Amino acid sequence: YGTLKDGLEHVMANREITLAIDSLAYVLSTDENGRYEYNYTTVKEGTVTATATFISAYGTVGTTSNETSFDVSKLDTTTVVTVANNTVGFVTINVNVTDQRSRPVTSGNIKVSVEGQDDQVIPVSGSIVPVKIDVEQEGDVKVTVEYLGDYKYNPSTGMNGTDADSEPFTNVTTQKQNVNLTVGTVRDHAYVTTVMIIEGDLRNATGYGIADADIILTFDNQDPVTVKTLANGHYRYERLLHISGDVEVDAIYGGNDTYNG
Q1: Which of 130, 165, 182, 258 maximizes the CB count within 10 A of its CB?
Q2: Concatenated DSSP letters for 182-200?
Q3: What is the pLDDT of residue 76?
Q4: Is the distance from CB of 131 to CB of 119 less than 8 angstroms?
Q5: Long-range contact pairs involving 136-139 (C-beta distance under 8 Å, separation at least 24)
Q6: pLDDT, tens only, 36-66
Q7: Which pLDDT does position 82 carry in this prediction?
């Protein structure tokens, strides 16, 4: 902003001012108090020079100009990473980027690096950015996060908190999924020398069937038999009955890298 006055310090109202900033010119008008103002949105950091020039259309006042300069710097950022879900198959982290005034940053990109995988580059479009990580086994997985910055914000490394003791976020400790295993028979009673059908389902935490899994069936804690689940997680076994009496049937799943037994 500025004020236009003549040689006698009288304000000059309703006069055109040419304001040049970064090689671009803007034509402004003074108000009744000789004042002009322009809101300039900076698009890069560094020193910006603004030059205001007045050219008299009547020749009563000579051409005059004045300039000022100001320094533009990007805002520092803080990136905080928290684990939203550490279950294998559903591993998710939340990324929160804020500026030095604790305001949410909603522009630019974050880069998520997982050991052994291609980097993910994800736009920052909200105050919390959820990121799903493809992990299929239990254990420690090396994960780092970086906000890449943009024209307005400086980059920052993902941290595990905001206090003085915070450290860079470096890994997620994953745990296996729990499963649900059922076992039953098609009827409660059968005769010796007939066939009894034992069947059930093996499903993951979201209810989807687990295919090609080994289920061990025991009969009164003896005679173990291994059957495989189908694509939908269902298994079925036909047992020929040799003796009479009550028989206790147990189904056991031993688990794998993804699922608990």
Answers
A1: 258
A2: --EES-S---TTSEEEEEE
A3: 95
A4: no
A5: 136/88, 136/89, 136/257, 136/258, 137/88, 137/174, 137/257, 137/258, 138/88, 138/174, 138/175, 138/176, 138/257, 138/258, 139/173, 139/174
A6: 999 988 877 888 889 999 987 765 566 788 9
A7: 97
| Residues contacting residue 21 through CB under 8 Å, at least 6 positions apart | 40, 48, 49, 50, 51
Among 89, 71, 93, 64, residue whose Cα is nearest residue 3: 64
Tokens at 57, concatenated: 């259309």
- Strand pairing category for 2-3 and 120-123: unpaired
Q: What tokens does 112 get?
A: 């998520």
Contact 77, 127 (CB under 8 A): no
Q: Which two tokens stand for residue 22?
A: 């970064």
Q: Who's near 85: CB < 8 A, 6+ residues apart?
A: 91, 92
